[in-house]
Amino acid sequence: MTWCVYLTHPEVKIDPDVPVPEWGLSDIGRERAGKATFLPFAKEIKQVISSAEVKAVETAQVFSGRLNVFHRVLQFLHENDRSATGFLPPEEFEETADAFFANPAVSIRGWERAIDAQDRIVNGVRSALRHIPDDQPVLFTGHGAVGTLLMCHLMATPISRHFDQKRGGCWYRFEKDWLSSQEGRHLGWTEL
To answer: What local confidence, expressed as pLDDT, does residue 1 receive?
Structure first.
């Protein structure tokens, strides 16, 4: 059965004057992504799939370039849509993110609802994996919030920020068949 790794982009260059999806990796983020290509799972990866946001694409390119594997971009992997607020100062962002996870059926400040983002990421990953042979491990590079929403689904647990990563640049491994299972599996983030 195909196993997958979901990896979040590491540190980015934050610029309040640039739309969030256009933020790229910082030097530290690029360095951390490069080191991650030497993790034990990396040598087995046959394909890298990322969202279209610059930070996720740049993370994927580090892996696909170093591992010499195919990289493709799929729109469904994008982070939860926060365009209604754009950049928020860190404290305000954290408060809004707390509310996003605590009220999954409600749009917080115009953000995409957590239940909609979870449905999008789960169905998108499921669809992508239908077209990948079972013997080909896949690396998904994306974003922390939707990665957490995917993790909650895989664990068959309600949406909660309790399962969120503590910092960008974390990963977890899951089996392809877990997407269809009703039995939850315990997962946890591992830092790069």
So the answer is: 60
